[in-house]
Amino acid sequence: MNLKKKIVIPLLLVALAAVAAGGWLYKTGGFNKDKDGHSKLEHAAKQLYTCSMHPFIVKDKPGTCPICGMELIKKVDDTAASGNQTPEQKQQAEMLGHVSVSPTQRVMANVATIAAKQTTLNKEINAVGIVQYDQSRQGKVTAWIAGRIDKLHVNTVGAFVSKDKPVAEVYSPDLLATQQEYLLAIRSRDQLKNSPVAAIAQNGDGLVASAKQRLMLFGVKESQILELEKAGKPNIRLPIYTPLSGIVIEKMVQQGQYVNTGDPLFSIADLSTVWVEVEVYENEFPNIHIGQQVEIRSQSFPGRPFTGRIAFIYPFLDPKTRTVKARVEMANPGQKLKPDMFVNAIIKVPLGSTIVLPVTAVMDTGKRKVVWIETSPGMFEPRDVQTGQQTDDKVQVLSGIKPGDKVAVSGGYLIDSEAQLKGGSGHENMPGMKMDEPKGTKQPTAPAPAKKSLNMDDMKM
């Protein structure tokens, strides 16, 4: 029994010593020593440095990149990239999203930058239009009484007529009889006005007023009635006048033709002002408003623009052309613009003061729009922007950048290609850029290791 105790007790002491030594080796990383004598924990605690342009370059102390000569930055470990980042680690992660362009690359790719600034932007909407008659300045000459056209003063379409000069003379038996009634009423009034009976004197005035009213309903003017009173005899022909001065655009009667009451004789249009009906596509329709200035250009008068303003926007859409018509009223000096003439219209839309960039500065990925900002000489970072209206070569930036930011306006594709070489898929996978990937997918957090065939002393592959 004593012999067993003497054997068991030393064995237990040896086992306890082995367990204690193993725990100490495990805690210090002795089981995970590599060939250089350092444990994995020591490697994890050690700060490593990498190149922002060539992330496969890894060193254990600061220095320069052996490929591009750039200053090395601190390498961010996987735990920092997983979300538990200190402010310093976040800053380093953001630096990995930057892209460096060497002076040689900048010259070869023609990388140019401008400072974003707030300026006034005017959008121009190009449309086509057709010149039309001003409908408020059109009129018809009609026969106010049945009769025969004895004389025409206007015989051709296109002739100019004045509202102060007659365009035709008509003979009408009804008009002749009404004139005789009016002259007879005047004589009767003159005879009865001296009657001692007041009712008889007033009756004479009533007959004159009734006959005069009938003449005016036949289209006889006040001046013609006064001439009739002075002459004392009826006119065989009644002169016909136009309601306005203008151009004869339609002639519907011949000399000697009999007409009925209300028959049209001429169509007259005043071309001193015209309408231009422009067609605006439905995507540009929200930008047009009543009162906007419009510039009209015609191939008949190159280099001589006309100006007008939008007076009316039609409340319906053409289902065939998907356009909305807008009416432009404008003066027509010299009657240069002819009805049914095709013209080009330029509608200027002021967008106010905003940040404006060249179109070439914005890269459209299909999911977002990105610009490259130069944060320091040769160092660029991507920035998501929201754009607004676009002109031929300018685009309105609503958010994402501020005045003073240096934006790359050319050579952006070189910068983007450098970002793809660095991050695997360009600015879509850079730190700080939002992703629109399907749920369940995971982006790589570190670049793929280089091939082992590259045996460089200062690179840890």
Any overview of this molecule?
GO terms for molecular function: transition metal ion binding; transmembrane transporter activity. Residues 141-269 form the CusB-like barrel-sandwich hybrid domain. Residues 419-461 are annotated as: Disordered. The chain is of the alpha+beta class and 461 residues long. It folds into five domains: 1-44, no CATH class; 47-96, no CATH class; 99-119 and 353-429, conserved putative lor/sdh protein from methanococcus maripaludis s2 fold (Beta Barrel); 125-134 and 271-350, Efflux pump adaptor protein, beta barrel domain (Elongation Factor Tu (Ef-tu), domain 3, Beta Barrel); 144-267, no CATH class. 25% of the residues lie in helices and 33% in strands. It is built from nine helices and 24 strands. Strands 6-15-18-17-16-19 form a six-stranded antiparallel barrel. Strands 7-14-12-9 form a four-stranded antiparallel β-sheet, with no helix packed on it. Strand 1 and strand 2 form a beta hairpin. Helix 6 (173-192) runs antiparallel to helix 7 (198-217). The longest helix has 27 residues, at 2-28. It is rod-shaped, with a radius of gyration of 47 Å. It starts with a helix and ends in a 38-residue tail after the last helix. The model is unreliable at 78-83 and 428-461 (pLDDT under 50).
